[in-house]
Amino acid sequence: MNGKNKMKFEDVGDAMRKRAKERKGKKRYRRVMAGLTGAALLSSVMTVGIPTSKAQPITDKSHEAQNSESLADRYKDYLTSKLRELYDEKIAEKKQEIIEGILKLNKPEPKHATANKVLDIVATAYTSGPEDNGIWNDKTHIGTKVRPGIIAVDPNVIPLGTKVYIEFSNGEGMYAVAEDTGGAIKGNRIDIAMSTRDKAKQFGIQDVKVHVLEKVLDV
Q1: CA-CA distance, 140 to 138, in Å (whole number)?
Q2: Do 164 and 173 touch, CB atoms closer than 8 A?
Q3: Are 200 and 127 contacting, i.e. CB atoms less than 8 angstroms apart?
Q4: What does the pLDDT look like over 11-22, one tens digit per residue?
Q5: Residue 22: which H helix or E strand, with range?
Q6: Are strands 150-153 and 189-193 parallel, antiparallel or unpaired?
Q7: How many other C-beta atoms can be found within 10 angstroms of the C-beta atom of residue 102?
């Protein structure tokens, strides 16, 4: 190979090596730029999720507002429950007052203030008809009909025609008028007229208090 041709080959080799270096440099540059671009993108994404110092107070205020609302709700629930308890107590008291009022209406109070005397009496019961009233059948001693609300008495203890209040041991009571007498009714004894013989038997013998009130019949 002559000197001229050898020179050309060396020039060509140098040119090829130079181009190879340039291509390698460009590749390295692209890799570096790609890395820098990726890092920049990652940094921007991470920065979006981090609240700034200016946004922090807004987040705190929102949290405080939520806590305040939660406390208000709990306080409201507490007050509601207490009001419900008070309401239920008042309703129960009113119901008890109504029940007691009804019981008082159904249970006449004895007239102690106007009673002439109060007697401890042994009481029995009877009904109209020959089984209990013999030949008098359905008539009383003064000629009225034997019926609930009248009693047989000893006139020496409770005068005929007298209104009385009979107080039973269970706290209940009834008004009655002395209109009848009986062979076995002597002293502190009374016989209370009932509507049926079964009720008279069921009554049996009881200790009662008789409040002698006033004369209501002229007999």
Answers
A1: 7
A2: no
A3: yes
A4: 555 666 666 666
A5: helix 3-49
A6: antiparallel
A7: 10
Q: Is the pLDDT of residue 59 over 70?
A: no
- What are the residues whose beta carbons fall under 8 Å from the beta carbon of 129, sequence distance 6 or more? 137, 138, 197
Locate 43 and state its tokens: 């940094």
The tens digit of pLDDT for each residue in 67-82 reads 666 777 777 788 888 7
Per DSSP, the three-state class of 132 is: helix
CA 141 to chain centre: 57
3-state secondary structure of 174: strand
**Separation of alpha carbons 162 and 217, rounded Å:** 7
What is the rounded distance in angstroms from the CA atom of residue 25 to the CA atom of residue 31? 10
Count of Cβ atoms closer than 10 Å to residue 212 Cβ: 21
**Cα gap 23→29, rounded to integer Å:** 10
Contact 161, 178 (CB under 8 A): yes
CB atoms within 10 A of CB 211: 20
DSSP-derived pairing of the beta strands 189-193 and 117-126? parallel
| Among the listed residues 165, 173, 188, the one whose alpha carbon sits nearest the alpha carbon of residue 116 | 165
pLDDT for 19 equals 66
The pLDDT, as a whole number, for residue 84 is: 79
- Convert 67-102 into a string of H (helix), E (strand) and C (coil): HHHHHHHHHHHHHHHHHHHHHHHHHHHHHHHHHHHH
Q: Which three-class secondary structure state does DSSP give residue 34?
A: helix
Q: Quick one: residue 129, left, alpha or beta (phi over 0 = left, psi -120 to 50 = alpha)?
A: left
